Automatic annotation (TrEMBL):
Pfam families: DAO (PF01266). Residues 6-392 form the FAD dependent oxidoreductase domain. Keywords: FAD, Flavoprotein, Oxidoreductase. This is L-2-hydroxyglutarate oxidase. The keyword Acyltransferase does not apply. NCBIfam families: PRK11728.1 (NF008726). Belongs to the L2HGDH family. SUPFAM superfamilies: FAD/NAD(P)-binding domain.
Length: 415
């Protein structure tokens, strides 16, 4: 069967679904199909994360992350409230445990204030009053942080899209792409979808999809596994709200944090371990073809030169329980190895430049027939409604609807 549509979205995570929603809210006449290779929505990054709605604290002022995170977080909270998706405003603290971290903590405070985040500095006494089990010499209290369930957000978006007239397909991997005049033909096992615009939200496979569509992605994806542990039930009162370390400013990762979840459990993590498969949720998940590609890739050699010390440290913490527990105890000294148990993992699609540099901002490439989302790590889930509108505006420009594109951009900027 062959169908002609205005837009096909490849990837049914929170960002792909939010993009389809933004298109149809702006122009209900459009025909939109979403293809997801798994049997459920949000099966990978969107369903394997800390479920934190971020405030916009960390991101370089003026970056796409910074512009979209603050307003995007508030939009996500409002969306959850309207859709009866669990959500709770919790706030969080970012804690410095050593003197050398204080300049980085101050930089975070400056960034947060520049991005419109409510930042309050805490001293050692105030940390102890707020979180008695947390060790720190200084901290930042961030009011805007919230918790939700992004898997439930994906299900809400899919339900809303059905009402808006979208065609939703799970168990529908995109097997091939071909140009046909001004359209891209996407073939699945059951049909061909002939789209005027292809939107690639394939996450861990986004660079593969871009190349298969005949384009040349400006970055490549390196998978990083983020492993979690869970605090045993008897110690779940160890923190009241999310507690984060001061992150390394040279890395796009936030560090191992302690997060009370909405179901009452408390998760610790994630780390950031190089994965050996695009969906490498365990050490034994190894894709030999991917390893062969990486071995020939000069970007990987550049990545190894830049970050070898960090990579070895993260792998050691993953493989040696004692080292992992010691790292956690820097933040929460009252926790010990008996208080923690392993609790699954997620895999982050991290973009890498040709010289091996890890990309710290969203990357959205626009080509003649496609829009490729090539880097959308945290806070992409937080910002997904606004990122989706940003992409929708690009889609309308592709379709020659420039007035509509301007209106979508203006609405997003005003939100």
């Amino acid at each position: 069967m062959s169908r002609a549509v205005d837009v096909v979205v490849v990837g049914g995570g929170v960002l792909g679904l939010a993009t389809a929603r933004a298109i149809l809210l702006a122009d209900p006449r459009r025909s939109v199909t979403v293809l997801e290779k798994e049997s459920r929505w949000g099966a990978h990054q969107s369903g394997h994360n800390s479920n934190v709605i971020h405030s916009g604290l960390y991101y370089r002022p003026g970056s796409l992350k910074a512009r979209l995170a603050r307003a995007g977080g508030e939009a996500m909270i409002r969306y959850c409230e309207r859709q009866d998706v669990p959500v709770r405003r919790t706030g969080k603290i970012v804690v410095a445990t050593a003197e050398k971290q204080l300049p980085r903590l101050e930089l975070l405070a400056e960034r947060g204030q520049a991005n419109g985040v409510t930042v309050r500095r805490l001293d050692r006494r105030e940390i102890a009053e707020r979180e008695p089990n947390v060790a720190g010499i200084a901290a930042l209290a961030i009011a805007e942080t919230a918790m939700t369930d992004f898997g439930a957000v994906c299900r809400a978006l899919a339900g809303e899209l059905t009402g808006l007239g979208a065609t939703l397909r799970t168990n529908a991997p995109a097997l091939s792409f071909a140009g046909e005049g001004d359209r891209t033909v996407v073939r699945t096992e059951d049909e061909e979808v002939r789209a005027r615009v292809l939107v690639n939200c394939a996450g861990l496979h986004s660079d593969v999809v871009a190349r298969a569509a005949g384009d040349h992605p400006t970055v490549r994806i390196m998978p990083f596994r983020g492993e979690y542990t869970e605090v045993r039930p008897g110690r779940r009162d160890v923190v009241s709200n999310p507690v984060y370390p001061v992150p390394d400013p040279d890395l796009p990762f936030l560090g191992v944090h302690v997060t009370p979840m909405l179901d009452g459990s408390v998760h610790v993590g994630p780390n950031a371990v190089p994965a050996f498969a695009r969906e490498g949720y365990r050490w034994r998940d190894v894709d030999r073809r991917l390893l062969a590609q990486l071995a020939r890739d000069p970007a990987l050699r550049g990545l190894a030169r830049r970050y070898w010390r960090y990579g070895l440290t993260e792998m050691a913490h993953s493989l040696v329980w004692r080292l992992y527990v010691r790292e956690v105890r820097k933040l929460v000294p009252t926790l010990n190895g008996e208080d923690l148990r392993r609790h699954g993992s997620g895999v982050r699609a991290q973009a890498v430049r040709d010289d091996g540099e890890l990309v710290d901002d969203f990357v959205i490439d626009r080509t003649a027939r496609a829009i490729h989302v090539l880097n959308a790590p945290s806070p992409a889930a937080t910002s997904s409604l606004h990122i989706g509108a940003h992409i929708a505006a690009d889609v309308f420009e592709h379709l020659g609807e420039n007035d509509l594109a301007r209106a979508v951009r203006a609405d997003t900027a005003a939100a």
